């Protein structure tokens, strides 16, 4: 087994789970899943402020817990993707939470396992998954168990899930956007079968070269979201959600006298 020490206790941040694990601890967990039972599926969520705001909005619209919220609550591992989560955990819980972003989780396991790892690339526009898979083979020597674009509706979910299951992938990288990817992984986990089911956002685009990874200095400081929002007009619509997240955390912090919210 590759998990030498017990993991920190799970936290609750703004009514969602959060595992305060380092990148190496998360990768140890992944390897433990692979070594223990190569066909038992586990879902992984990389939590960021937009996930929280989107889920809360959907909960409010539906008058109860949305599918997105349920998918995150039921995840086997929930890591802090961005500095906003780290800040919120410090402000509301008084806890220091390390970051374990989706790109680093995906590439980290590929680096560790190399040719022993079978990966299915699912998501983005037609052609992107193929390019991402080719780059991963070149850079990490992994095996490609399959590829499929993310432009399909719920009526095709069962078919795509069966493709993944038949491929006997060790890790599924699901890059279909916030909510959609987490719900797909949660609802079809048994059919998908891969030990590591990782909702990975734009990781496929970065691997394929159709999107840029933020510069190292922004990643080290945890402020790559500023670089992304400021440098891409398509992302400018994200700024109001981030501002609402900051306002929410500040409001909850002022309102509560202690404990979790």
Distance between the termini: 35 Å
Helix content: 40-55%
Task: List unreliable stretches of 5+ residues.
Answer: none
The best one-word shape is globular
Major β-sheet annotation: 6 strands, parallel
Q: How would you explain this protein's 3D organization?
A:
This protein has helices at 23-36, 49-62, 67-73, 83-93, 102-113, 128-140, 157-167, 180-187, 189-192, 203-208, 216-221, 224-231, 238-255; strands at 11-13, 16-18, 43-47, 77-80, 118-123, 143-148, 171-175, 196-199. With 261 residues, the protein is of the alpha/beta class. It has a single domain (11-203), classed as Rossmann fold (3-Layer(aba) Sandwich), CATH 3.40.50. Helix 3 packs across helix 8 (180-187) and helix 4 packs parallel to helix 13 (238-255).
Keywords:
two-stranded antiparallel ribbon, 261 residues, 13 helices, alpha/beta, single chain, six-stranded parallel beta sheet, 14% strand
Give a short summary of the structure.
The chain is of the alpha/beta class and 261 residues long. 51% of the residues lie in helices and 14% in strands. It has one domain (11-203): Rossmann fold.
Task: Spell out the blueprint of helices and strands.
Blueprint lengths: L10 E3 L2 E3 L4 H14 L6 E5 L1 H14 L4 H7 L3 E4 L2 H11 L8 H12 L4 E6 L4 H13 L2 E6 L8 H11 L3 E5 L4 H8 L1 H4 L3 E4 L3 H6 L7 H6 L2 H8 L6 H18 L6
Helix pairs in contact: 1-5, 2-13, 3-8, 4-13
